[in-house]
């Protein structure tokens, strides 16, 4: 769903053979694959081992692939950036944290990971942070609010979830800038990208959203049938006459620089 975001950032930063990329929270590796097909040397870390296994499959070159094929130099590690060594060709010159702020634990934890990652990067390298756009321009935000309410009915929308939870909260206007400041980075531009969430049918939409981890906290305290029922009701306004589910969203990215 975030492919337009990846494409916009890679085009703006001219990602190519000269790029040595470290991705924080690389997940199943799609953003890394897209960078690798542009010739970048890619590395990624993630705390989710099952998704890393998918990334390894995705980024493993096929026998018939050329030496410069996507994934030929991919390096993946389970854990944080401290598990990653400096690339053979030199220090990293691009760090990405595409996973939207507000969906990946506490800002303090992400700031700490960014500090560790930038210690492996060249001075002045771009660091890209991703986040949700304005609440009123993100249809999926209203759907994810169901997860927050079911996980903790007492948690208001303007409060940050406790550290370590996989809950969701709406993004603040300056979230990315504040995160960059905590990590000791210098803001150097930003942008907005349309990233609609589209699914073939209602079951696909429910599977897709439940797989994000943002409903895990709700599933721990509420009956799974109730979670699915309320999720289905929240998605209903976005189901089209042909059965497809379409939710327009706007995502925002911030480019910061290492000092």
From TrEMBL:
<feature type="region of interest" description="Disordered">
    <location>
        <begin position="154"/>
        <end position="173"/>
    </location>
</feature>
<feature type="domain" description="Methyltransferase">
    <location>
        <begin position="22"/>
        <end position="98"/>
    </location>
</feature>
<protein>
    <recommendedName>
        <fullName>Methyltransferase domain-containing protein</fullName>
    </recommendedName>
</protein>
<dbReference type="InterPro" id="IPR041698">
    <property type="entry name" value="Methyltransf_25"/>
</dbReference>
<feature type="compositionally biased region" description="Low complexity">
    <location>
        <begin position="65"/>
        <end position="79"/>
    </location>
</feature>
<feature type="region of interest" description="Disordered">
    <location>
        <begin position="60"/>
        <end position="88"/>
    </location>
</feature>
<dbReference type="InterPro" id="IPR029063">
    <property type="entry name" value="SAM-dependent_MTases_sf"/>
</dbReference>
<dbReference type="Pfam" id="PF13649">
    <property type="entry name" value="Methyltransf_25"/>
</dbReference>
